[in-house]
Specification:
The complex is a heterodimer of chains A (about 110) and B (about 120).
Chain A lengths: L3 E4 L2 E4 L5 E7 L7 E6 L6 E5 L3 E2 L7 E6 L2 E6 L8 E7 L6 E2 L3 E5 L1
Parallel strand pairs in A: 2-11
Antiparallel strand pairs in A: 1-3, 3-8, 4-5, 4-9, 5-6, 7-8, 9-10, 9-11
Chain B lengths: L2 E4 L3 E3 L5 E8 L7 E7 L6 E6 L6 E3 L7 E6 L4 E6 L8 E8 L9 E2 L3 E5 L2
Chain lengths: ~110, ~120
């Protein structure tokens, strides 16, 4: 199984801040990496696919980058509605595996 | 627009089985690969397996091999996930999610989740 290490596990930032979350794969997964947002009590929602592609309808303040083993997810301007847990997910190999999640809160 | 609607919450005793359904609306059921992902209380996401729409073949995570069965009913546009020999640690929200392609696995559509509680 491909282990996905996500950090930090939680963060608190102010409205308007730029935040970055990292996800590291234990082996090369090319760009087969997605990012999801999960608001409390809701199902996850796809934000970024193939490491850097913004899903249709997702605001442009969200972005992703990286390839190989190291990936980054950024919110360029944090808004209150971005309070959620964010997960990376690899699909280079089955079983699909997710990072442990990053809980984002507003200061 | 694809919509996935799951069956309601369940409470089961240890050792019992549970069968969760996921009904798809929209016209993509016959082509979409359906996956199941679970989330224990306060925990992260865990992939359980998938079912192929072309031949109904399945791939399960090794952790669930022998305990999970995923099936499809094309006439009802519904997929099912049955988990047997339930343990307390199977208490979780179970999600179905669809992927358009077999090997480009990103989940654009999710069910609302079904809470399964294992309690004596």
């Amino acid at each position: 199984d491909i282990q996905m290490t996500q950090s930090p596990s939680s963060l608190s930032a102010s409205v308007g801040d730029r935040i970055t979350i990292t996800c590291q794969a234990r082996q090369d997964i090319t760009n087969y990496l997605n990012w999801y947002q999960q608001r409390p009590g809701k199902a996850p929602q796809l934000l970024i696919y193939d490491a850097a592609n913004l899903e249709t309808g997702v605001p442009s303040r969200f972005s992703g980058s990286g390839s190989g083993t190291d990936f980054t997810f950024t919110i360029s301007y944090l808004l209150p509605e971005d309070v959620a847990t964010y997960y990376c997910q690899q699909y280079d190999n089955l079983p699909l595996t997710f990072g442990g999640g990053t809980k984002v809160e507003i200061k | 627009q694809v919509q996935l609607v799951q069956s309601g919450a369940e409470v089961k005793k240890p050792g019992a089985s549970v069968k969760v359904s996921c009904k798809a609306s929209g016209n993509t059921f016959t082509r979409d690969f359906m996956h199941w992902v679970r989330q224990a209380p306060g925990q992260g996401l865990e992939w359980m397996g998938m079912i192929n729409p072309v031949n109904n073949s399945t791939i399960y995570a090794q952790k669930f091999q022998g305990r999970v069965t995923m099936t499809r009913d094309t006439s009802a546009s519904t997929v099912y996930m049955e988990l047997s020999s339930l343990r307390f640690e199977d208490t979780a929200i179970y999600y179905c999610a669809s992927a358009r392609y077999q090997w480009l696995i990103y989940f654009r559509h999710w069910g609302q989740g079904t809470l399964v509680t294992v309690s004596s």
